[in-house]
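Supplementary material to the annual report.
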Amino acid sequence: MKKIINDPNQVVNDMLAGYTAAYPDEVKQLPDTTVITKKNAPVQHKVGIVSGGGSGHEPAHAGYVGKGMLDAAVAGEVFTSPTPDQVLEAIKAVDAGKGVLLVIKNYSGDVINFDMAKEMAEAEGIEVESVVVKDDVAIENIEDRRGIAGTILVHKVAGAKAEEGATLQEVKATAEKTITNVRSMGIALDSCIVPAAGTPSFELKENEMEVGIGIHGEPGIERKEISSADAIAEELLDTVLQDMDFTGEVAVMVNGMGSTPEMELFIVNKKVQAILADKNIHAYKTLVGEYMTSLEMTGCSITVLKLDDELKRLLDAPSFAPAFRNE
Amino acid sequence: MDLTVQDMKNWLLKTNEKIKENKDYLTKLDQAIGDGDHGINMVRGFEKVAEKLEPAEYAEIDAVLKDTAMTLMSSIGGASGPLYATAFLKWTATAKGLETLDQEAFAKGTQAAVDGIKQRGKATEGEKTMIEVWARVNELVASSEKVTAEQIQQAANTATEDSKEMEATKGRAAYFKEKSIGHIDPGCASSNLLFEALAEVMKGNE
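Predicted assembly:
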């Protein structure tokens, strides 16, 4: 294992300390927790938005804490959901009396831990709602789908809606609408190493790629010979577009998994735009970069969100989160 | 089986040792049909349990169980953290004020634990989860006249081995569908270690 770390068991704490030191005006870390909140949390007169999950997906999730997006992000160990007590601290820190929305990715660990935290917060008199992102079309059954890069768009939309002063129920409804209209799919060319494990999560041969990969180095759906950027873009996007009717306007995200150069992401995006144009789908907004990674995994995912006027407005709204600036 | 407060403590300390010895094994099982962190997470959790229990003085069984539950809840994470925590927390509620745990009380406790895991994980028997082991041990203890350490170990071992041929329908292993067949479930394997540790403590008493 070749990594720039100190102690494999301290990577999350070390990272969070470095992160807060990098953005001292924007965020703070709650003492003795792995929770990053806005510097001025709780922000008055708005619903609080909390997300989080295992670490190793940077800039997710702490990178999205900032005005216009999340109020707090809870970091678990690498690829491991944070514990309920940590999520509870985040909820308490951001609640300004208008309630808190939890944005959860659909993994049993995340769902169970956030659910437990929700119950504990409710017992303390805080109003809490939750939404579960399940955008990965590599999984057939829609209820079992994993939450991957589409989660970032849910953060953006929910954050902007809360900023407008909407109620908890309204923010939740808009987040749900986003989840209903977003789809993603990814591939990997190479695996990643969880620091505390020390060995790759899976092995791929020189000429192989794994299609339908999640974001935890878990093996994907199909292993096949690597193809060109155009063919990869086509395969991923076709699967996404077949899953629902995207006719009209969309936001599209080409997301790097950790080790793929931006050059390659832009090459993929070239084909993505061509396919969309060919199908009369208008890319209202395009995002290319690393939004939801999987440590040093090589690969990318493509996300498409179908837009209406409200979602367009909320996507365009300002965001000051370090990993999603929209000023 | 009459387990004293000290036996309960010894059981959980021994579990910590066994989990530590089998860290790589658990991780390997989880790399096959999960995300490869089960060994790491379980070691972190039970190390904390050992740190908490070792210096503490307990008068009653439920206090040991409760400290175990709360420590696991705040230190494991993933799906297994809250599931193990729920198991011990539900068990706690059935052992209020007990100074020894006889077979009947043990069965009540494991029954509550099984119900708790099922409810929290929205799963049941046959879905290739830790429930296989907990339910099998519970069934054995509830239905035997005088259960032995050997029988508990047997039941846990068999249930774990049986998980191999099941197809996962819950948790991350479910993404693998039929490809999950042929692999032992990591949650069964860690639960098996827990009950093996119990059997060892009981053998010392038999």
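Residues 2-205 of chain B form a domain with the Serine Threonine Protein Phosphatase 5, Tetratricopeptide repeat fold (CATH 1.25.40.340).
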